[in-house]
Amino acid sequence: MLLETGKVLTDDDRPEDKIRTLKARxxxxxxxxxxxxSLYGGERPLKFASPEFTExxxxxxxxxxxxxxxxxxxxxxxxxEVVSFEGEDGTTDQEAKRAWKRxxxxxxxxxxxxxxxxxxxxxxLVWNPSxxxxxxxxIPAGEAVVDxxxxxxxxxxxxxxxxxxxxxxxxxxxxxxxxxxPPMVYRRQRMLNGGQWATRTVGxxxxxxxxxxxxxxxxxxxxxxANRSRLHGDPESELDPVAPLQDGINTLWAHLFTAAxxxxxxxxxxxxxxxxxxxxxxxxxxxVAEEDIPLGQxxxxxxxxxxxxxxxxxxxxxxxxxxxxxxxxxAVRHIAAQxxxxxxxxxxxxxxxxxxxxxxAESGLVAKASDKQTYFGEDLLEVMRLEALAAxxxxxxxxxxxxxxxxxxxxxxxxxxxxxxxxxYKAIGVPDEALWRMIPGVTEEQVTEWIRMRDAQAQAAAxxxxxxxxxxxxxxxxxxxxxxxxxxxxxG
Length: 492
Hints:
There is one protein chain. The protein has 492 residues and is of the alpha+beta class. The protein contains 16 helices and 15 strands. It has helices at residues 15-40, 51-57, 68-77, 94-102, 105-119, 243-263, 295-301, 322-339, 343-346, 355-361, 363-390, 394-401, 415-427, 432-438, 444-470, 480-491, and strands spanning 82-86, 121-127, 135-139, 144-148, 156-164, 168-175, 184-191, 198-199, 211-213, 222-226, 267-271, 277-281, 287-292, 312-316, 404-407. Strands 4, 5, 6, 7, 8 and 9 form a 6-stranded antiparallel sheet that branches. The chain has a 3-stranded antiparallel sheet with strand order 3-2-10. A hairpin with a 5-residue loop joins strand 12 and strand 13. Helix 6 (243-263) packs antiparallel against helix 8 (322-339) and helix 11 runs antiparallel to helix 12. The protein is flat, with a radius of gyration of 36 Å.
């Protein structure tokens, strides 16, 4: 990973030095985080406009944005829905599923993934200091940082959580074991306006410790959820290729609106006639001066007298605004191509399109979402492995380490398409449970209930069949058959 500061962290640094170094790394990222958050929110100053245009319009277009920087990550995030987690044997980890629901992680993970798409990263903290219920908390990029061991991409050696109460700034530092020292948790504080980090005293419960051995053992319970990280660099934001085109589109709209205000309507001009005036008279009705008649009055009254011989009216043709719209549409198409966002999400030009054509249009987005599932899935699987360790279940943690994150199918299909596909999967022997999980919108709880209902139905059918067969079985020695048997015995 590339460091944003010149200070390299070492294992033998004092806790306060580590906090200072890691906090500097968070601060170095702040400008990029703030800029991308502003882009996503549509808060972008007008760029690429000439000084003359800016001087003419002033702050007229402040706050205006034709915001595609929100559409692009939102469209991708909608295709990234976590369903469950599987262990090494391929079965759903029920305990992980319960923890995922209990901690609201199934909801908050959507915010964490969106943050990672927008600002390049987010974080998850797995914490169970009391040894009871494990908590999973997702943290934005500006409030946490993970430091990796030199020469590795995934070996976490230090983690820092930062937050503020409006007066003080608080830090929780997690370190690994080193040179005979146990893995530790350090809690520090300082005034919000800066200063030295000191042992935390504000806001602590009586039972809470300040410096203590990490109950998670030699595990850093802070996980970075990174977007499209490269081997030699930092994670990237989905907005980086969109921002320049977004700025250009905003400026083009500003020019279009200005042209529409000044030149979109035909402009008429009176030729061969003096500017209309009227006399100014004194109290004795003598003409003492004259004043111009506002031309707007003629437009309002829709009436004009041409009193001079030879006067005529000419007309300037209106400006053609289609040129602006064509350039804007082309820029939006560039955004669609570079981000692999389907054109129907950006241009709204597709209607009555065949299912195959729609599937082809979304193929780029589906491939991109599948790629994101690979990397985000490993990060989230690490979160659940830490949850199993925090719950005191090392065997389950080891199984999850070799398991996988199960995602909803990123391809949207019609009900008929799904039914046809599932029928064909059934024909080649795919189990019902696997087919049910492929149906869009079906939860793991529904699948479990369907399994119970199927088993109950099968048991009821077996009992009914057994009852039917018993009607043709051996008799109990009564009735007509018994009388015939007795007669045979007597004749014998």
